[in-house]
Write a structure and sequence with these properties.
heterodimer, A: about 240 residues, alpha/beta, Rossmann fold, 6-stranded mixed β-sheet, 4-stranded antiparallel β-sheet, B: about 850 residues, alpha+beta, 6-stranded mixed barrel, 6-stranded mixed beta barrel, membrane (chain B), Membrane_comp_ABC_pdt (chain B), transmembrane (chain B)
């Protein structure tokens, strides 16, 4: 019997939006669980509902029906303020377009979530995180002075500064070349392993998906599990 | 605490970085502009008004005047002195004065040693001679008198003049008293004597009509304090309080009009500033959608986001106000020192009010106009981090327009305290907005037809206008309102200065003659003609007592105020100057009934001036009775005339038809212009006609002209200031709209569109917008001007056809040029820089 606690639990969640042509069901009822420290890839074609699912799991959006529990808390019952607090305390994010605040330096971007959550040692943590992603010398640079790979490393440092229990990554390597993409992947999985963070990532990239313990396939708003939980693979040493 | 350390730290950090990276430039510039424009305008106009009020105060010989039928208690004067005010006494009455066998009714003024508190007494060496200023006053036992008295009484310097029971030595010739009045028929000739001599004349006994005036001068605030102290002690039947603002003379009116113009210009500057802040705040808000979504995603509660951005706006506003105040002060200081030579502006005078107004305006504008964009910003959902197309959660143009309209109106009203001007500007603005919305949709429909065909610059321009209909309508409205406001200020200035100059054209009569008998008339004309002096029209005049309206006897005992020097009241009540003519005088306009012309009816007809008609409740069809000597003349009111009292020509309350006055032997009034250098000729000219009385209004006209020139100059500087403010607003608008175009330019560029195509399409787009905005502005301008001129400025409204053509052309040119320049800047970036700027 597996004693690892459940980090995310969904029960028959759906998402329906109203369009000019009537109601449109983007997500069919979806149920699945994610264990703590597990890495899960959500894969699927564009428009299959991957990002919508990610938004719901992360508490950025509300379900139309069904239940979501994050670390035991009923996300579907929380209002926006409560969800914001939960995100601040338990969740980290990485986006395809980095989503750094352009008018803040790399260091300040990393400090942002720590400051928002009232952590006292924000600066010290941010400096450490910056070192860990290998950008110790670029803390005072603005995002537009950094390359795409560097920006995403800043984003990773920002995501981990509050030691979140769950990390959501939306196409984290989608805007990067292969070499930079690999560096980012390695960093992601390293933190996932070292900090015991639950990793949920949305990707087109089957190789990236294959490095996760589980792969969930989205198709036209429905979810199918394509691989059973396995041991987390070692970091790839080479990418062709 | 409202602003906790986290929000303060984050907000300050964002502010610092963004300011350094130039991302706050536009909104900062807008606030700087609003504060600088309002400050420089109001500071400058305050200083100018102080200068002009000082000038007009000279015509009252004081800042304030307390008039009374009886001597006022000494305690009142002591109180004024205790407050630090300057005080002077003047006693004024009408009395017969005698020199030998000759006598004449004179305006006798007894003054103490402090008179005049403002302005100077001017004297001449010989009657009608050149004037010079003096600080002296008649000594004990002496009188000074006006040239006219010398002429009529045949008196000379050193001779004796009897006033009441006392006899005085004539020791001076008055050329001009500062408080002499502006009326062409400036009342009776004046005699000035020492107040201490008044008692021995015994002319102020019971039954005499004596004014005991107290003159005050000092700082405005102290005068107001004193007036507040005094007011409960005043008896309405006996006392009245006057300030220069109550001055109803042509000069007073000109100054009042100029003040209203400054007010209008400042209001427009506020509106312009508000528009530019609204535009800039919109842009600011839009640029922060992402950071807000990121912060919310990272767990920032809504309250933290709100605090961060409200603090940020406060920082920006604070900096904007500081810089704006410095710039505004500098600008007006430069202007004031530039014109200091021509207008006596006190450079060192310090006025707090404009600073307070400017800071208040900056604060209110910045907060009110960023409120809606901020509300939009706060409503940005965190999901935007995943779905970039998600914008703000709220969006209502109607709320935006409504809020902006109400805010602008309240600002104007609060600032001006003038509901009428505020309502006119707002009303015209609303009409303009509605018209523009209609035009926009019309344009879009037109654009569908014009924009078809191969994709050239023209088609791209139309396609953009059409696609961004709502955005464009907002832009069109803001361009049109800016252009309209500039037009209002420009045209208003032109009309006002023109009317002032028309009032006193070169060759304006500076001498008037009355008491010309019918027998003297041909000889006088010939004599002056030979000397090369051109006489104006001769008006027959007869003194008549206004006795009854429709058989109802009217009170002929006029009140004190009505008997003052004011032009409108002169001669009414006891006696009026009646004239007759079949021709309507220039600058007279029939507003009711019809002009009697020369046709004869059964009952003689009379035309009455509107203000008198209003005061005495005279209506068309009323039968007026005048006693002329022992005869009774009755006439039916068949027309009411509006008279432009600001022209320097004889004007009459009652003009009868000639037939009514047959059989009476009138005297004649005329006027003529004599250049300054020919002044010496006067004595010779008048010598053969000792009974004809001459009025010298040359000095008055020169005074009036110099003030009008100064005011015109000031108005022109104000115009330049507002034009600068308006141009900057246009630049801000074009720049902010350029941001919105960035994405499209980047895509076109990426797709390989040539620079000239993009450039031409943007220029076409702005040309079209400028053209339409200019045309609509010209229309709205006419409406605003019509209302302002007829309802506020008391001017004749007219159409301004030249601007109907000029406004669209200049609008297209300026807006097109600004668009081209901004576009140039964007196209100087390469495609990847463009794409990067979009992030």
């Amino acid at each position: 019997m597996n004693l690892t606690p459940t980090m995310i639990k969904t029960q028959a969640i759906t998402k329906i939006v109203t369009t000019s042509e009537g109601e449109l069901q983007i997500l069919q009822p979806i149920s699945f669980d994610v264990k703590a420290a597990e890495s899960v890839a959500i894969v699927g074609a564009s428009g299959s509902g991957k990002s919508t699912l990610l938004g719901l799991l992360a508490g950025l959006d509300e379900v139309s029906s069904g239940e979501i529990y994050v670390d035991g808390q009923p996300l579907h019952k929380l209002d926006e303020e409560q969800r914001a607090r939960l995100r601040g305390e338990k969740v980290g994010f990485i986006f395809q377009s980095f989503m750094l605040v352009q008018s803040l330096t790399a260091l300040e971007n990393i400090m942002l979530p720590a400051e928002i959550n009232g952590l006292k040692d924000a600066r010290k943590r941010a400096l450490e995180a910056l070192e860990q992603v290998g950008l110790g010398h670029r803390g005072n640079h603005y995002p537009n002075q950094l390359s795409g790979g560097e920006q995403q490393r800043v984003a990773i440092a920002r995501a981990f500064i509050t030691r979140p229990k769950i990390l959501f990554a939306d196409e984290p390597t989608g805007n990067l070349d292969a070499a930079n993409g690999e560096k980012i992947e390695n960093l992601l999985f390293r933190f996932n392993r070292e900090l015991g963070t639950t990793l949920i990532l949305v990707t087109h990239d089957s190789e990236l998906a294959s490095r996760c313990q589980r792969q969930l396939q989205m198709h036209a708003g429905s979810l199918t599990e394509t691989s059973q939980p396995t041991e987390q693979p070692e970091a790839k040493r080479h990418v062709g | 605490m409202w602003a906790d350390s986290a929000s303060l730290r984050l907000s300050w950090r964002l502010f610092r970085h963004e300011a350094r990276r130039g991302e706050l430039t536009v909104i900062l510039l807008a606030i700087v502009l609003s504060v600088a424009a309002v400050l420089s305008l109001s500071l400058f106009s305050e200083r100018l008004q102080t200068a002009l009020t000082d000038k007009t105060a000279e015509f009252l010989a004081a800042d304030r005047l307390l008039g009374s039928d009886q001597p006022v208690p000494e305690q009142w004067l002591e109180q004024a002195k205790a407050l630090g005010l300057d005080v002077a006494k003047r006693v004024q009455l009408r009395s017969m004065v005698f020199a030998g066998e000759q006598m004449m009714l004179a305006d006798v003024r007894a003054v103490d040693g402090h008179y005049p508190l403002k302005g100077k007494v001017k004297v001449a060496e010989v009657p009608f001679g050149p004037a010079r200023e003096t600080d002296a006053l008649p000594g004990l036992g002496e009188v000074w008198m006006e040239s006219r008295l010398f002429q009529v009484l045949g008196a000379s310097l050193g001779g004796q003049l009897e006033v009441g029971d006392a006899s005085f030595t004539i020791s001076g010739i008055i050329s001009e008293l500062p408080d002499g009045g502006f009326s062409v028929f400036g009342g009776d000739p004046k005699v000035l004597l020492n107040l201490q001599d008044l008692d021995k004349t015994h002319v102020t006994g019971p039954g005499s009509r004596t004014d005991y005036d107290i003159l005050f001068a000092g700082p405005d605030g102290v005068l107001e304090d004193y007036h507040q102290w005094l007011e409960p002690r005043l008896d309405r039947e006996l006392h009245y309080w006057r300030s220069v603002k109550d001055d109803d003379s042509p000069l007073g009116r000109s100054v009042q009009r100029a003040e209203q113009y400054f007010l209008l210009a400042s209001l427009l500057a506020i509106v312009l500033a508000s528009v530019s802040i609204a535009v800039a705040a919109q842009r600011y808000s839009h640029r922060h959608y992402d950071p807000v979504a990121i912060m919310k995603t990272l767990g920032a509660p809504a309250s933290l986001v709100r605090r961060i951005y409200l603090l940020q706006i406060l920082f920006i506003t604070g900096l904007g106000i500081l810089v704006g105040a410095l710039v505004g002060y500098g600008v007006q200081q430069v202007i004031a020192s530039l014109i200091a030579e021509r207008v006596p502006v006190a450079l060192d005078a310090w006025h707090w009010r404009p600073f307070l107004i400017a800071v208040f305006t900056g604060l209110v504008c910045a907060l009110l106009f960023s409120l809606y964009p901020l509300m939009k910003l706060f409503s940005v959902p965190p999901l935007r981090v995943l779905r970039r197309d998600l914008g703000a959660g709220i969006s209502s143009r109607i709320i935006q327009f409504l809020a902006a309209g109400v805010a602008i109106f309240l600002l104007m009203w609060a600032y001006s305290g003038n509901l009428k001007i505020s309502a006119i500007l707002l009303g015209t603005g609303l009409v303009l907005v509605l018209a523009l919305l209609l035009v926009t949709f019309g344009l879009i429909a037109l654009g569908r037809r014009l924009g078809q065909g191969r994709m050239g610059a023209w088609q791209l321009a139309w396609a953009r206008i059409q696609r961004r209909a709502m955005d464009n309508s907002v832009q069109l409205i803001s361009f049109a309102i800016t252009i309209m406001l500039l037009l209002v200020v420009l045209v208003m200035r032109n009309d006002m200065v023109q009317q002032w100059r028309d009032q006193l054209p070169q060759g304006t009569p500076n001498y008037f003659m009355i008491n010309i008998t019918e027998q003297q008339l041909p000889e006088l004309e010939r004599h002056f003609g030979q000397a090369g002096v051109q006489m104006d029209t001769f008006y027959p005049v007869i003194r008549g007592r206004f006795a009854a309206i429709n058989e109802e006897t009217i009170r002929t005992d006029v009140s004190k105020e009505e008997d003052s020097n004011n032009r409108g009241r002169q001669g009414l009540g006891r006696e009026a100057n009646l004239t007759w003519s079949d021709r309507l005088q220039t600058e007279n306009r029939v507003v009711a009934g019809s002009w009697h012309g020369d046709s004869q009816g059964e009952i003689p007809r009379v035309s009455v001036e509107t203000e008198v008609a209003q005061r005495l409740d005279i209506k068309l069809g009323d039968l007026l009775t005048f006693n002329v000597g022992s005869e009774v003349v009755q006439a039916e009111v068949t027309s009411l005339r509006e008279v432009n009292w600001q022209t320097m020509q004889p004007n009459f309350f009652f003009v009868l038809e000639p037939a009514a006055m047959q059989g009476f032997s009138p005297t004649y009034i005329t006027s003529f212009h004599l250049p300054g250098q020919d002044k010496a000729k006067l004595a010779g000219l008048m010598a053969p006609f000792p009974t004809v009385t001459l009025f010298d209004v040359d000095a008055r006209i020169n005074q009036l002209r110099s003030v009008i020139e100064q005011v015109s100059l000031a108005v022109e500087f104000i115009l330049v200031l507002v034009l600068c403010a308006g141009s900057l607003v246009l630049v801000a608008q074009v720049q902010s709209s350029m941001d919105e175009r960035l994405q499209e330019l980047a895509i076109l560029r990426t797709l390989g569109a040539r620079g000239w195509l993009i450039r031409a399409s943007v220029i076409f787009e702005f040309l079209i917008i400028g053209l339409v905005a200019g045309a609509m502005a010209a229309l709205a301008n006419e409406l605003a001007l019509y209302l302002l001129q007829t309802r506020v400025f008391d001017m004749q409204a007219r159409l301004h056809w030249d601007f109907w053509l000029l406004a669209p052309l200049v609008g297209a040119l300026v807006v097109g040029l600004l668009g081209a320049l901004s576009c140039w800047r964007l196209l100087s970036f390469n495609t990847s820089q463009l794409l990067r700027r979009m992030l």
